[in-house]
Amino acid sequence: MNRRLVTILVVAFVLASACSFLVYRLIRNRVSTQQVATTRVVAAAGNIKLGTVLTAANLKTMEIAGTPPKGALLKQENAIGRGVVSDLYEGEPIIESRLAAPGSGGGLAATIPNGMRACAVKVDEVVGVAGFATPGMHVDVLISGVPPNTQGQTANQGTVTKTILQDIQVLSAGTDFQKDADGKAKPVPVVNLLVTPEEAETLSLATNVRIQLVLRNPLDTKVDKIPGTAMASLFAGDNGTPATVRPAASAKVVHRTVSRAFSIEIINGSKRSEEKFASPEENK
């Protein structure tokens, strides 16, 4: 083979390899610059219930592409020993707002914000069995009973239902055990409501009458003025008021005048005709 031709081929191969290497370097640098940065954060290793005090077994680390959530924990030691104030699910990044303050421990007490109180309310079986009073829900508190020291018209209204608290958050729901008349323990549905100290006093007084919780939309925070409803008002109105008896219309006597007429038969040959004439009294 011609030596000159071999030299040309070798030089061409070297130039092609160099160009390929440069193109590869340029493409790799551009792809690497476009890669999104990741951050390693602390996440839940499994489903964690409210009030649980976190341990190393409850935690794991995972990488998140892009900007991590605000308040995300980057080190496990910042989460160990702190109570969970709301349920966490497996693989969910743990943020500061989902944990109690360091040193406050776990359980229900750790979920109570500063200045608030958890007040236990015994509810009926309908509320307990239905299970709508779950943590995070918002309810109104109604009471039913006979108002004390009522006088006048109020004393005749009987049982009165009144809304005493509105837009109250349910902190937890569970079952307590109380003794019945025979001294045996029986389960009683109990709901813990998140209230202010003043609202806690109101609920404490309300335990002497029947308490009912009604569910409301958590986005509906409007507080309405509700006057209350008395038992007597349920029977008022069209259903309770006797129908008005209308007096019977008096019979109208119609005097009809009986006309008296006289007829005269006229015979003219073979023809016979009859003529009628009014009585002389009608012509007057």
Shape: flat
Q: How far is the N terminus from the C terminus? A: 163 Å
Figure out the total of helices.
4
Number of strands: 10
Q: Major sheet: size, sense and barrel closure? A: 6 strands, antiparallel
Would you list the SSEs in sequence order as H and E?
A: HEEEHEEEHEEHEE
Rounded to an integer, what's the Rg over CA atoms?
A: 47 Å
Report the helical percentage: 10-25%
- Low-pLDDT runs: 239-245
> What class, by secondary structure content?
alpha+beta
- Fraction of residues in β-strands: 25-35%
Average pLDDT over all residues: 76
Q: Please, could you describe this protein's structure?
A:
There is one protein chain. This protein is of the alpha+beta class and 284 residues long. It is 18% helix and 30% strand. A hairpin with a 5-residue loop joins strand 5 and strand 6. It is flat and about 170 Å long.
